[in-house]
Amino acid sequence: MSGNVRVVVVGGGYGGVSAANRLARRDGVAVTLINRRADFVERIRLHQLLTGSDDAVASYDEVLGGDVRLVVDEVTRIDVQEHRVLLAGGGPVAYDYLVYAVGSGASDPGVPGASEFAHSVSDLEAARRLRSVLAAAPTQAPVTVVGSGPTGLETAAELAEEGHRVTLVCGGVFGPSLHARGRRPAARRLAALGVTVLEGRGTRVTEVTADAVRLEDGRDVPSTVTIWTAGFRIPDLAARSGLRTDPEGRLLTDATLTSVDDVHVVAAGDAAAIAGRPFRMSCQAAVQLGPGAATTILRRIAGKSPSPVRMLFAGQCLSLGRTEGVTQFSYPDDRVNALHVSGRPGAGIKEIACRFTLRQLVTGARRATSSAPRGPGADRVTTL
To answer: Could you read off the pLDDT of 10-65 as tens digits, one per residue?
Structure first.
């Protein structure tokens, strides 16, 4: 594909890939996606990587359109004045529009010992390291999962089902993202798997050591392997590049996902923050924000005013091991309601959601692949 409008997508997760595929379908638009990994990460399956039930990766040849140029490198700065991005391993890449889709990772807990002794499951490299640590530990060594959001619940259940001795430290309410009725089947499932759940007052973690987790109430929980799942962190690329962000580091945008500082920068995925309209960081949001960001850019290219992005949520799907789960339904504005599905049907819905999400990207890739031979300028490149 040869085009005269250059769009650079920074980040190859759910939001970045869906944005790139949508943009590449338009004639006259040349799309480059820059990502620091050579493979697409199915982040919603990372907890499965820990036990080997899934490798949590897919090939970009499968999910990214053939008309999208892929650069494997890391963006160190966005030069908004010159309309280019600077790479760690190569020269600058110029753009007319940029999609900021850098995603999120594990947050710094700010708890003594956590950065030294706690592990994460928030990205591919961290999950692979954690899998090796778990494999090296004795089977009955105590494992502590800190945080009872979706990642914490799924991780605790996955490991317990494989025979690990797991304690889940909630730091407050068990399953805070779930409706009270949805928490009950989740709690029953963890109990059936032998997970010890510490919830309520006094369960906030105040220190992590090499062999224990200390709680606010003074208790020491033995822990050979500690896994921290509470909180997300956004890479500071936007702030380092002089663009305004919210307190969590997300790029501040208007309702069309356009940066409040630069009309040529549009955000998608976990790294986007619509002023006055906070939303939950999730795959469900990312697969809507990616196409939304693309539509904003395409309307500007066409000389039209972009429209506010609409976000509609359906709920949350949790796998609690390989055979059971909980699907928590919500109102379109993401407020949870009492409706839920648990047990084997709940697990089935989660698996369908994972497969459907990947299939959406594959379908988008096919639509973003022209039948005409691609010229040298569109060849995929790998920069190390």
So the answer is: 999 999 999 999 999 999 999 999 999 999 999 999 999 999 999 999 999 999 99
pLDDT at 333 over 70: yes
CA dihedral 274, 56, 115, 195 (to 10 degrees): 100
Q: Residue 126: CB partners within 8 Å, gap ≥ 6?
A: 105, 106, 119, 120
Answer whether residue 373 shows pLDDT above 80: no
Lookup: tokens for 275: 């002023």
- Cβ atoms of 167 and 142 within 8 Å: the answer is yes
CB 226, CB 115: distance < 8 Å: no
Nearest Cα to Cα of residue 210 among 229, 226, 227: 226
Q: From CA 259, how far away is CA 271, in angstroms rounded?
A: 11
For the record, the structure tokens of 174 come out as: 């068990």
What does the pLDDT look like over 247-279, one tens digit per residue?
888 999 999 999 999 999 999 999 999 988 778
Q: What is the pTM of this model?
A: 0.92
Give how far Cα 13 sits from Cα of 37, 38, 79, 153, 215, Å. 10, 12, 22, 23, 35
Per-residue pLDDT, 309? 93
What span, in angstroms and rounded, lies between the C-alpha atoms of 241 and 266? Answer: 14
Q: Is the pLDDT of residue 70 over 60?
A: yes
Tokens of residue 86, six digits: 């600077």
- Between the alpha carbon of residue 347 and those of residues 70, 136, 173, 316, the distances in Å are 34, 29, 23, 12
Q: Which DSSP state fits 201? A: T
SS (H, E, C) 290-350: HHHHHHHHHHHHCCCCCCCCCCCCCEEEEECCCCCEEEEEECCCCCEEEEEEEHHHHHHHH
Q: Which of 51, 58, 55 is nearest to 155 (CA)?
A: 51
Given a cut of 90, whether residue 172 has pLDDT beyond it is yes
| Angle formed at CA 55 by CA 50 and CA 58, multiple of 5 degrees | 145
Bridge pairing between strands 225-228 and 142-146: parallel
Side-by-side strand order, sheet with 212-215: 205-208, 212-215, 220-222
Q: Are 218 and 204 in contact (CB under 8 A)?
A: no
Q: Is 278 helix (H, G, I), strand (E, B) or coil?
A: coil
